[in-house]
């Protein structure tokens, strides 16, 4: 019996010939990511160890991205602790560079790697053929100290993609549609593998979204085979694969789904669950107070271009705040060169520095009681973006921008 991509990556990291779903393996990690959301907790645990040490500082990447710039004295103290610890121990450290997952994909991730991150959206790295998964502080600390961890090999759900997306339909609509189909718990501790002929028509940015939101279906990770699109991206960013994997023809999948991209329509995830799905047309007219274009899921250049195309020559509706937040410094700079940021600001949008922003409802654009946000963020549970009695709708960049102009949820016209 052949192996899936997930099984192959774990087998390589464990130094064994084969790995099968349900087995537990001790693995050597290629990278360990942490951000300012929880790193201070890891440091506190580290300082309480009897013999504190780091197995290999070159495999650690720490990013300040959740509160940038920091929002309080308490946050400043927490980030200083992280900053000082990283400097003293030679850990790669980024502040103001962008969202951790975007930074990792731009600068570190290579196909075939196994990466732990102290953030649930570490599953993003499958867009480049790597196995990324989120862990808690204790697991992260063990990995940091030993360079190793254990992992149970997940079963794999295979999503065979065919066809091509229509204008105005994005990868976010694809993954939200899939989550609506299988449910928010439909992939619990499974790998979601996206493959098939339709994959060739999706950019790395598109693939980023599919793998990034896999965790919203409960997945352990999201994965994709390495192809020419992957290799071209790596070459442009000065990296080469560690190992290129695809699932064997006789690999065993827990379930196989066929997804025709040409049939996907723009959708919205309604409050307060990511699988509470509706077509945009079904919720059109819902009054909004704020719109957000950004996050690790949809703050890339393609998203900003799409939003700028929708809003060019128009104005943000009176009474609506529209936050536009590029996912990294590189994206911000390129958007500025292309005049995209000018287009948004001329329309009345608020362009912010690269960071997580309102997606996690802590430092920028926090919404109040009864307010409605339409967002390209990752989650929409109660209180995610502010007051627990607020409402978050998730949608693609075009829908979010069109809604900011209309003052209510609206379909984008092309």
TrEMBL record:
One of its GO terms (biological process) is L-leucine biosynthetic process. One of its GO terms (molecular function) is metal ion binding. [4Fe-4S] cluster binds at residues 296, 356, 359. InterPro entries: Acnase/IPM_dHydase_lsu_aba_1/3 (IPR015931), Acoase/IPM_deHydtase_lsu_aba (IPR001030), Aconitase_4Fe-4S_dom (IPR036008), HAcnase/IPMdehydase_lsu_prok (IPR011826), Homoacnase/IPMdehydase_lsu (IPR006251), IPM_dehydratase_rel_enz (IPR050067), IPMI_cat (IPR033941). Pathway: Amino-acid biosynthesis; L-leucine biosynthesis; L-leucine from 3-methyl-2-oxobutanoate: step 2/4. PANTHER family: HOMOACONITASE, MITOCHONDRIAL, HOMOACONITASE, MITOCHONDRIAL-RELATED. Belongs to the aconitase/IPM isomerase family. LeuC type 2 subfamily. NCBIfam families: hacA_fam (TIGR01343), IPMI_arch (TIGR02086), PRK00402.1 (NF001614). This is 3-isopropylmalate dehydratase large subunit.
